[in-house]
Amino acid sequence: MSKLLIVGTVAFDEIETPFGKTDKILGGAGTFIGLSASQFEVSSAIVSVVGEDLPQEYLDLLKSKNIDISGIEIVKGGKTFYWKGKYHNDLNSRDTLVTELNTLADFNPIVPENFKNAEVVMLGNLHPSIQMDVINQMTERPKLIILDTMNFWMDNALDELLAVIKKVDVITINDEEARQLTNEYSLIKAAKAIHKMGPKYVVIKKGEHGALLFNNGNIFFAPALPLEEVFDPTGAGDTFAGGFSGYLAATEDTSFENLKKAVIHGSNLASFCVERFGTERMENLKRDEVSKRLHQFKALTQFDIEIE
Predict the structure, then answer these.
(1) Is residue 215's pLDDT more than 90?
(2) Degrees (nearest 5) of the Cα angle 45, 47, 53?
(3) Running DSSP on this structure, what letter comes out for residue 171?
(4) pLDDT at 207 over 90
(5) In 10 A of CB 171, how many CB atoms?
(6) What count of other Cβ atoms lies within 10 Å of the Cβ of residue 154?
(7) Which end of the chain is less congested by CB atoms within 10 angstroms, N or C?
(8) DSSP of 178-247
(9) Taking the mean position of all CA atoms in its chain, how far away is CA 148?
């Protein structure tokens, strides 16, 4: 079974949307990526840090999904990373009300020995220096290193971010971030500029409008499935990353054609994530539900047309 190494936060989220609000619940990029990737036949591990305040049931949940948690450091007396946010009525914009780094402020990642040869590495959204530290701990060059990042690091750690981008095979960012990183409004021009920075593949996410995959002049567009209800967008991008990386690790195929399928799998799983608060929907997601919705994706994009 292929190995997938996931680097990202295991955290507390407190969320308010037009549909309700939560107390502190399980969140974090590493959590969403891991739960999403667990839909595939892959051996995965999460590298992260938490405090003693994280309930054991959250760690047990990850273990129950066959996720190796030996790389999650528990700091005695420490407090877990905490984020509180409020979404606007359109759910596309939000206000961050509280961010407490806590144990994340002094995090030194330690990759478990048996995952230092992982075929696929998924670098979730974290400080670029942490992402680089993980890359440097790998004993073998992974078949695929995938990077997720955000505009915060472009504003505050650009040099370190560019150094990481140079070492990865795939980058996943949203359209706003792609434009900021390259100073190009056209996403085609932006993708070309990012290719020159290092990555072979560029995935540009457009939220409810789908995702674009670029590779050496080839472009693939995957729509987002129109949903009757979107409850909470938190973690949707990380769930996409988990489906994307989990599928690629399971299939052991890094061709453009297979990355197209990975984008669809990522989009498919993200469509479930937004239906409930936090990780609730992903915790009990069944394979037959996933398969049924994949058929909906296929029907959404499949058509016959005569071209003269």
Answers:
(1) yes
(2) 110
(3) E
(4) no
(5) 27
(6) 16
(7) C
(8) HHHHHT-SSHHHHHHHHHHHS-SEEEEE-GGG-EEEEETTEEEEEPPPP-S-----TTHHHHHHHHHHHH
(9) 6
The count of other CB atoms within 10 Å of the CB of residue 132 is 16
Amino acid at 260: K
pLDDT in tens, 143-181: 999 999 999 999 999 999 999 999 999 999 999 999 999
How many residues does the structure list for the chain?
308
SS3 sequence of 228-295: CCCCCCCCHHHHHHHHHHHHHHHHCCCCHHHHHHHHHHHHHHHHHHCCCCCCHHHHCCCHHHHHHHHH
Q: Kind and range of the H or E element at 300?
A: helix 287-301
Count the helix, strand and coil residues of the chain and give each as a percent rounded to the nearest 5: 40, 25, 35
Closest CA to 118 of 101, 137, 131: 137
27 SS3 class: strand
Cα(247)–Cα(245) distance, rounded to whole angstroms?
Answer: 5
Task: Report yes or no: 142 and 252 within 8 Å, Cβ to Cβ.
Answer: no
Q: Which residues contact 283 (CB under 8 A, 6 or more apart)?
A: 35, 61
Do 4 and 43 touch, CB atoms closer than 8 A?
yes
